[in-house]
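quick one, 153 residues, struct below
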Amino acid sequence: MVGECYDTKKNVSASVTLFEFVSTGPKGTIPKAAQFTYQFDDTYNFGFGDWDEKTQKIDDSKLSYNGDAEKVLHTLGNIIRTFTVINWNVSIFVKGNTAVKHRWYQMNINKHLEEIENYFFLWGQVGDQWHPYEKGKKYSAFLAIRQNGGFSF
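---
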């Protein structure tokens, strides 16, 4: 997404690609991370949350409210684009693990849909069926597939 982003650091293991960054706002600095975990058939699950230095894991159960949601959102969009430029033939599965986070994802997909569709074919899940994404419909999960073979124009 077009907009100011945080700098990220990438770490890759056999089945997980992790991007770390630091949120800066009224609550101070909060380490964040987004990760792509291989699921099946070139499909990766996208997870995001606060980075716990002690456990070396993402805590996706809380919301930070650090006053930088738009910058975090742009950073996440940039992370997904970066991952899919390198891994152009994959699908990215996204589902909020809480109702609040899922609603935040869907509201921001709707807000930035025109830009997202410049890079991705976007699908929404209703029940056990996948449909081309339509603004205003409620979906239980989202699937993004990179357009243009992973190349940005």
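The longest strand covers residues 28-40.
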